[in-house]
Amino acid sequence: MANEIKKRPMFTQGFVIMPYKYSVGSLASKFFIDLRDKKKITAAKCPKCGFVNFPPRSVCPKCFSKIEDLVELPEPGLW
Asked: Measured in Å, how far apart are the chain's first and last C-alpha atoms?
């Protein structure tokens, strides 16, 4: 322990440029817009197998069909 060098943290100032964007997609955008404007909670319903997926995803996790529509869920606490 006597030979340990004491290290001090080094600080520097500058800017970090992060040139990327994240998009939630059209289905999730509809979900967030309905939540914000209409105060309703929606989920994605598969047109092929009928599986209701929350939070909404654009592809059904069971049959891998494309989902384009949202359905309103019942009052919070009932599902």
From this structure: 60
Asked if 43 contacts 53 with a C-beta cutoff of 8 angstroms, the reply is yes
Average pLDDT (40-60) is 91
Nearest to 60 by CA among 72, 50, 74: 50
Q: What is the mean pLDDT of residues 18-36?
A: 85
With vertex at residue 64, the alpha carbon angle to CA 59 and CA 66, rounded to the nearest 5 degrees, is 45
Mean pLDDT value of segment 34-47: 91
| Contact indicator for 45, 71 with CB cutoff of 8 Å | yes
Residue 61 has pLDDT above 80, yes or no: yes
Report how far apart, in Å, the C-alpha atoms of 2 and of each of 5, 6, 7, 8, 42 are: 9, 10, 14, 17, 64
Name the pTM for this structure. Answer: 0.62
